[in-house]
Amino acid sequence: MTTRLRQARRALILLAMCHALLASTGSAAELDSFLTNVQQTYEKAQALTADFVQVATLTSINREQISGGKVYIQKPHAIRWEYTRPEAQTILYANDTLRVYTPKRRQILQSTLSAEDRKNVALLFLAGLGTLQEVFTATALPSPEQHLQRIRLLPRSQQASFTELHIAVSRHNYFIQELIIHDYIGNRTAIRLSALQTHPNLPVDTFTLVAPPGTEVLTQPDLTGRR
């Protein structure tokens, strides 16, 4: 799988979690209460923007890849994941279509995501379908930071593109601050969010992908990164 496709998968997972995060504080009752607060917080947010830093650890070659940029989310069904460093790249999901645009290559990879694809990359919640408990099992993790609740999420589907997610959620406002993704070959991707803001709406052209003439468009059968 290419780096671009890995980034697309990680972006989709992150942005889906931004709409419906699970948290746990101990007992089942506390878990349900915290979950309700988190989901209500994100349900009230019609649009979100945040800065991000992504650190991908490739265990097979003992190498770190650091990237960053800004993410834009508009409910329902619109995501823009804008990488500005180390090089420009846009990952856009809108109208059931995922596009990965790399200006340096003058190339767009695109694929249509089915309902099953969305479930396997956690986009089910972005679509406003189902509940988090239907897709994950959750366990509270120790947290050295008193203001954060850390949680391990295990996907119920065997077709999911990751083995587990570790998330850190603010106890004060119920927004995510960190997401760590573990894949099937031992790689680890940590994504940290900052400067998160909510908005009534974002400009419509935020979710329009404009590429210069001559850009190659390749249609791929699957950009989800599944096994």
Shape: globular
- SS element count, helices: 3
Task: Note the main sheet.
Answer: 12 strands, mixed
When the domains are counted, the total is 1
> CATH superfamily, please?
Lipoprotein localisation LolA/LolB/LppX
With strands numbered from the N-terminus, the spatial order across the biggest sheet is 7-8-9-10-11-1-2-3-4-5-6-12
Proper CATH architecture: Clam
Helix content percent band: 10-25%
Q: Could you say what the CATH topology is called?
A: outer membrane lipoprotein receptor (LolB), chain A
Which features would summarize this protein structure in a list?
227 residues, outer membrane lipoprotein receptor (LolB), chain A, 3 helices, 12 strands
Please characterize this protein's 3D structure:
The chain is α+β, with helices and mostly antiparallel strands and 227 residues long. The chain has one domain: outer membrane lipoprotein receptor (LolB), chain A (Clam). The protein is built from three helices and twelve strands. The protein has a twelve-stranded mixed β-sheet, with helices on one face. Strand 4 and strand 5 form a beta hairpin.
